[in-house]
Write a structure and sequence with these properties.
This protein is mostly beta strands. It has no helices and eight strands. A four-stranded antiparallel beta sheet has the order 1-7-3-4, with no helix packed on it. The chain has a four-stranded mixed beta sheet with strand order 6-5-2-8, with no helix packed on it.
Length: 113
């Protein structure tokens, strides 16, 4: 689709680590982030928080978004559960975005969250 910008990535986390993704979502029709397995198949969204989108995300006061990917709930907004996977893929996309901001990613110790 010519109106969708995709950002694909691969994650690998130890039990005591988390992936922190920061970005300010652009003005767009829709956006979402999703965690997947190695073959880019969605993790089990029926029972686990593996996705966040324009409607469900909790943005900061300045309009920015922080997503925290980890094996256990850190008690932070926009937590994404790895569902027991130490590694996998992830996708962020903007649909009909006015611009395409670049997210930043950082692996941190879970205790520092």
């Amino acid at each position: 689709m010519p109106h969708i910008a995709y950002y694909h990535g691969y994650f690998e986390l130890a039990d005591d680590e988390a992936l922190v993704i920061d970005v300010t979502p652009p003005d767009c029709d829709y956006w979402n982030f999703q965690l997947n397995n190695h073959w880019m198949e969605s993790l089990d969204y029926r029972y686990f928080p593996i996705t966040v989108n324009k409607a469900s995300a909790k943005l900061r006061d300045d309009g920015s978004l922080r997503i925290v990917v980890s094996a256990r709930d850190p008690g932070k907004d926009n937590w994404i559960d790895t569902c027991g996977h130490a590694r996998g893929t992830m996708c962020l996309r903007w649909v009909r975005a006015k611009d395409h901001p670049q997210p930043t990613c950082e692996v941190v110790k879970w205790s520092s969250l």
